Amino acid sequence: MSKPDVFLRQATIEDVTSLLSLLNQCYREDVGWTNEAHLIGGIRTTAQGIETVINDPLHYLFVFPEVEAGKETGKILGCIAVDIKAEQKTAYIGMFAVHPSLQGLGVGNQILQAAETFAGRHLKADGSDNKTRLTMSILSQRPELLAYYQRRGYQLNGERMPFPEDGNNGEPKRDGLELLGLEKRG
After folding, report:
1. What is the pTM for the complete model shown?
2. Which residues are registered as beta bridge partners of 185?
3. Pairing verdict, β 9-10 and 59-68
4. Which of 179, 95, 88 is nearest to 134 (CA)?
């Protein structure tokens, strides 16, 4: 498959079902290189969790909709969230997913770059020259994912936290899962 033109727009409540499908497929099914199916079972998120993000005025969820003949089909091919924490000059990047059929074609790079640009502009909107920080967390058991983000300028920041076992993010298939904090200064 050739790389499509990436167009992002802000998610709406009408996107929840398609987003839920994409996120659970990319993270919990054994397809594509970004899945965590060997580490975590169950769901990646809930419809309510996605709705909460969409309705939060400082949390932006962007989607890459499938378009055919100039119209959206209702299918979401990629997504990324940017949670703005303006007082700390920080934006947290999460809910990043690209449909498995498009992985490895540069689509994810374009989506991540767009989110980083958005966050940087949003955080510098006050006109100050203060440095901004982009943060995220990844499973420590995913060295290939860590390498991907390091190639894009993210570095480990020393934060380590246990994988949440609240039932809203899936069920660990092994003990000792933890999340590592990453950051990129802008």
Report:
1. 0.92
2. 133
3. antiparallel
4. 88
In this structure, the strands spanning 90-98 and 133-139 are: parallel
Q: What DSSP state is assigned to residue 17?
A: H
Find, among 98, 118, 101, 109, the residue nearest to 151 by Cα.
109
pLDDT (tens digit per residue) in 38-63: 888 888 889 999 999 999 998 999 99
Contact (Cβ atoms closer than 8 angstroms) between residue 124 and residue 109? no
Strands 90-98 and 155-162: unpaired
Q: Residue 88 in contact with residue 98, Cβ under 8 Å? A: no
The fold for domain 9-134 equals Aminopeptidase (3.40.630)
State the pLDDT at residue 3. 66
The pLDDT assigned to 129 comes to 61
Tally of residues, the chain: 186
| Ranges in the chain, pLDDT < 50 | none
**Euclidean distance between CA atoms 121 and 1, whole angstroms:** 33
